[in-house]
């Protein structure tokens, strides 16, 4: 038996530390969250995806009375980006959740497992790490790759083995 350890790297940033582009991305994700369709959970999420050519695509969660038919903000934004700009590499994704006053909530929210899997697929598709920013009211967590949020992920490499 061998004990093994796995380190996850991420940064905690303050709003003053952010580059202008990241401030813009958070503001766009916040605007997107305001348009979320979340009448069942009242949990409004916004995501902004930055493409390598500088284009920003946003999305928000879309719910449905048949609950599983809805989709998270991250996947709405990423699928839109990949559907419309299939040849443009995804650089970053920014995620925010807002409260009833349209303000970013005090805690960062982590993407769900399915969204992590889709971010992992997008990294693999474009052979490029995707930077992930999770923004709260006062601080931002920055991950350089989905491998720090979804270690040991299932991927195309596993399918191709057999
Ligand atoms: N949701 C997201 O949009 N992103 C996440 O990462 C977590 C959850 C949505 C799905 C659902 O509409 C609501 O938040 C409550 O789970």
Descriptive overview:
- With 162 residues, the protein is an alpha+beta fold.
- The chain has one domain: Cytidine Deaminase, domain 2 (3-Layer(aba) Sandwich), CATH 3.40.140.
- The chain is built from four helices and six strands; from the N terminus they run βαββαβαββα.
- The protein has helices spanning 20-34, 73-84, 113-126, 156-160, and strands at residues 11-14, 44-51, 56-60, 90-98, 131-135, 139-143.
- It has a six-stranded mixed sheet, sandwiched between helices.
- A hairpin with a 4-residue loop joins strand 2 (44-51) and strand 3 (56-60).
- Helix 2 (73-84) runs parallel beside helix 3 (113-126).
- The radius of gyration is 16 Å and the shape is globular.
- The protein starts with 10 loop residues before the first strand and ends with a helix.
- The mean pLDDT is 97.
- It binds tetrahydrodeoxyuridine.
- Tetrahydrodeoxyuridine (THU) binds at residues 38, 41, 43, 45, 61, 63, 70, 72-74, 111-112, 115.
Give short descriptive properties of this protein.
162 residues, Cytidine Deaminase, domain 2, globular
Q: How do the strands and helices of this protein lay out in sequence?
A:
Blueprint: E1 11-14, H1 20-34, E2 44-51, E3 56-60, H2 73-84, E4 90-98, H3 113-126, E5 131-135, E6 139-143, H4 156-160
Parallel strand pairs: 4-5
Antiparallel strand pairs: 1-6, 2-3, 2-4, 5-6
Helix pairs in contact: 2-3
This protein binds tetrahydrodeoxyuridine.
The site of tetrahydrodeoxyuridine has 13 residues, from helix 2.
């Amino acid at each position: 038996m061998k004990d093994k350890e796995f380190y996850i790297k991420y940064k905690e940033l303050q709003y003053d530390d952010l580059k202008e582009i990241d401030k813009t991305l958070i503001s766009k994700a916040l605007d997107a969250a305001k348009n979320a369709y979340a009448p069942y959970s009242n949990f409004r999420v916004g995501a902004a995806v930055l493409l390598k050519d500088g284009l920003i695509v946003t999305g928000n969660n879309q719910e449905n009375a048949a609950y599983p038919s809805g989709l998270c903000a991250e996947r709405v934004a990423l699928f839109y980006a990949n559907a419309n700009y299939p040849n443009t590499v995804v650089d970053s994704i920014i995620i925010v959740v807002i409260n009833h006053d349209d303000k970013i909530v005090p805690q960062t929210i982590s993407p769900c497992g399915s969204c992590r899997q889709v971010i992992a697929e997008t990294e693999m598709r474009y052979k490029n790490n995707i930077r992930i920013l999770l923004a709260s009211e006062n601080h931002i967590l920055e991950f350089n790759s989905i491998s720090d949020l979804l270690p040991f992920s299932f991927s195309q490499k596993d399918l191709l083995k057999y």
